[in-house]
Amino acid sequence: MFQGETAITVDDKGRLAIPTAYREQVAGECGNRLVITYNPFDEGCLWLFPYAEWERVRDSVNALPSVRAQHRNLQRKLVGAAAVVEPDGAGRILLPASQRTTTGIEKKAVLLGMGDKFELWSEQEHLKTTRQTIGEDDITDEMAELRL
C-alpha cells in the first residue's frame, strides 16, 4: 500500500529516483517492475502501477467493447501509452519523453502514494489541484457518509 506525498526531482535524462521509503516495497511486492501510463482523468498527471496491479487494470480496460469511441480513447491513453520500467541500481526509473512532454513534468514533480498505485504530477498541476477546495455542492452521497 502506497501513501504519502514526496517532492521529486527529474534529472536531465528524464529519470527520477523512487523514494527510499518505497524501494523495498517496489522491489519485493512489485517484482521491481512498474508500469507508467497517462492518468486519463487529470491533466499533468501520470499513473505508476505495480506490474501485477497493472495487469488487472489493463485486462479490464481491454475488455471494454472497442466499438465505442470513449472506450477506444481510454484504451489508447492507458494501454497504448503504457511503458514497463524497472528501477536501476540507484533506484531510478526513466520516464518516457512523450509522457513528460504531454503532462508538463519537468525538473520538479510530486509523487503521491494512492494505495494501489502512484500518481506523478507536474509541480504546477499538483499545486493547482491541491489548492482547489471541495465545495458543498461537490460532495457526493458517498463522501457525505465519510467520518473525517
UniProtKB/TrEMBL annotation:
Keywords: Cell cycle, Cell division, Cytoplasm, DNA-binding, Repeat, Transcription, Transcription regulation. It comes from Rhodanobacter fulvus Jip2. It comes from the Bacteria. One of its GO terms (molecular function) is transcription cis-regulatory region binding. Residues 5-53, 82-125 form the SpoVT-AbrB domain. This is Transcriptional regulator MraZ. It holds the Pfam family MraZ. GO terms for cellular component: cytoplasm; nucleoid.
